[in-house]
Specification:
The complex is a heterodimer of chains A (302) and B (253). Chain A is built from 10 helices and 15 strands. Chain A is an alpha/beta fold and 302 residues long. Chain A folds into 2 domains: 3-225, 3-Layer(aba) Sandwich (Rossmann fold); 228-301, 2-Layer Sandwich (Alpha-Beta Plaits). The two termini of chain B are 28 Å apart. The chains are: A alpha/beta (302), B mainly alpha (253). Chains A and B meet through α2 and α3 of A and α1 and α6 of B.
Chain lengths: 302, 253
């Protein structure tokens, strides 16, 4: 599989001497749904800013579909659609104008841009608000507007910086569905998010940034396999009166009907349920206490 | 590139047209007051200037002052606002070359200078019969003036960090230079020292050429009057384009 996006020893040192990126080598395959994770200040937005052409790099290279960004800026920009973290449109401009203008900046004729804007606004459920000014939209609507704007020139690579921040559950689910659809249609998507379950659910490959350094870059499944322990919460039908012991697990009684179990990697959930059943405790409900990616993320970035 | 240019220009025109109460009405009111006070009330006592009735003498100056202020105001406020609300990033991520961005914003400034200048001229025509000596000279002077001040406004916006920064130059530099550039008087009536000093005021040359276009009277040779703003346009355009290419105050260092 060829690479859609790669960086070679990418360094960014701000004028205040802050080293935001310390030579990262990122590799995103064509057609991938890629998660770029990191805690606040890890360098995610800086990396995205450089790739999208918003920031100057200090050194290193950015290669998009085999083209060096430095020498092929025009072609590279055509291939990238960016949905930034911060709202960055004129709040006094009508929504449809924001989209049509963005297409115009990419050289798309107004007639064609109008059709594309209509399709995207309908897809984002913003068509009824097309003549309203952007500042009248809710936070979630503004995010959807920015997603629509990023797609106006039909990019090959879509970069999403915290796309679902402040978006309600229902809309988030529909955005996920739409993003999956775009990815299935062949679009490479790079996603940064603080919702780790979002990354786990959507992405196939992942990179984790910590203090400007890439601490992990691998396949999501492989990475999750590294998470040796999983913590689950078990609600029981019977009251738990004594100490619970399960081989290779750490058990902690939280309430009289609730148990926290930290599973060893060789123990399955059914082993835990059977072990409890042997102790005359029947399980009514099981849920994950912390998602596996979250615990792994914390161990890698702490 | 043509589509990107057209997009920026249409956006700029719609922007100032949407807020016409702020952009078009105030200059029209100010102009009417100038004519009423300086032309109507005081003009009769002043009599003639360079052989022309005073009220007619000040008309080209008033129109040109409007063009200067409006061309400048459009680029300085529009470009500063795109920095302020980060919407300039829409252009940065796009394939639009920097020189097209500059050309688009400058054309927006020219368009506002033209629209408001025309509105002011029409208003004046209710008070005074407007004479036209050469439409070509008027058009050329208008174009050179509006391009020059739109470029200056753009550079001001690049460096501006606060709203105060975009009002300092118009209030403390442009307005005094316009008044001292012979808007209300002929340079000939000044003592020789001040007349010499006026030669360093670029607005003086534009004012003189504009007056020549309307009234057929001038104190400077026309080629000289055109050469000054033309040279300044070249210098300002190079500065503005270099600032954009270097990403000054647009791309974080």
């Amino acid at each position: 599989m060829s690479l859609a996006l790669s960086t070679d020893s990418l360094v960014k040192t701000y004028s205040n001497k802050l080293e935001a990126l310390k030579g990262i080598n990122l590799k995103v395959e064509e057609g991938d749904f890629f998660a770029l994770l990191g805690s606040n200040g890890a360098g995610k937005t800086t990396a995205i800013g450089i790739i999208a052409g918003l920031l100057k790099r200090t050194s290193g290279e950015v290669i998009i579909n085999g083209l060096n960004q430095k020498n092929h800026s025009h072609e590279v920009k055509k291939m990238i659609g960016l949905m930034p973290q911060e709202f960055n449109f004129n709040p006094h401009e009508p929504n449809i104008e924001i989209l049509i203008n963005q297409a115009g900046y990419f050289g798309i004729p107004r007639k064609e841009a109008k059709t594309q804007a209509e399709t995207l606004l309908k897809k984002m459920e913003l068509w009824d608000r097309r003549f309203d000014v952007a500042q009248s939209l809710s936070g979630g609507m503004k995010r959807r507007l920015m997603l629509a704007r990023a797609l106006m020139h039909k990019p090959k690579i879509l970069i999403l910086d915290e796309p679902t921040a402040g978006v309600d559950v229902e809309i988030r689910q529909s955005m996920w569905h739409y993003l999956r659809q775009l990815n299935n249609d062949g679009m490479t998507i790079v996603l940064t998010t603080h919702y780790l379950e979002e990354a786990e659910s959507l992405c196939r490959n992942i990179a984790i940034l910590s203090h400007g350094v890439l601490v992990e870059q691998s396949n999501m499944k492989k990475l999750l396999a590294k998470a040796k322990r999983q913590v689950i919460i078990i609600d029981t039908i019977e009251k738990i009166t004594g100490k619970i012991e399960i081989q290779n697990c750490d058990c902690k009684v939280l309430e009289e009907n609730t148990l926290q179990v930290s599973q060893g990697e060789e123990i399955s959930i059914s082993d835990v349920v059977s072990a409890l059943s042997d102790q005359n405790i029947n399980v009514s409900h099981i849920r994950s206490s912390q998602n596996r990616l979250e615990s792994l993320f914390l161990s890698l970035t702490s | 590139m043509w589509i990107a240019y057209k997009t920026i220009v249409i956006k700029e025109i719609l922007r100032f047209a949407r807020i016409w109460v702020q952009t078009i009405v105030p200059p029209v009111i100010t102009t009417s007051l100038y004519l009423l006070i300086f032309g109507g009330l005081m003009g009769g006592r002043i009599g003639q200037m360079q052989g022309i009735d005073y009220i007619n003498f000040i008309v080209p100056g008033i129109i040109l002052m409007t063009v200067i202020m409006q061309s400048y105001a459009n680029t300085v406020s529009s470009f500063f606002m795109t920095k302020y609300n980060n919407s300039f990033e829409e252009l940065l991520v796009s394939t639009t070359p920097n020189w097209i961005i500059l050309l688009g914003f400058v054309s927006g400034g020219i368009a506002r200078g033209f629209c408001v200048g025309l509105a002011v001229t029409l208003t004046i025509s209710f008070f005074v019969e407007i004479k036209i000596f050469s439409l070509l000279i008027i058009a050329a002077t208008f174009l050179l003036t509006s391009i020059m001040f739109a470029l200056a406004g753009f550079i001001n916006a690049v460096f501006a960090r606060t709203f105060d920064d975009i009002s300092i130059i118009p209030n403390f530099v442009l307005l005094p230079l316009t008044y001292l550039g012979g808007m209300f008087y002929s340079i000939d009536i000044l003592p020789s020292f001040w007349r010499g000093l006026s030669a360093f005021n670029p607005i003086y040359y534009m004012m003189d050429a504009f007056r020549l276009g309307f009234l057929g009277i001038g104190t400077v040779e026309l080629w000289k009057a055109f050469l000054v703003p033309f040279s300044m346009i070249i210098v300002l355009a190079i500065i503005a384009n270099t600032l954009l290419n270097r990403g000054v105050s647009i791309k974080t260092e």
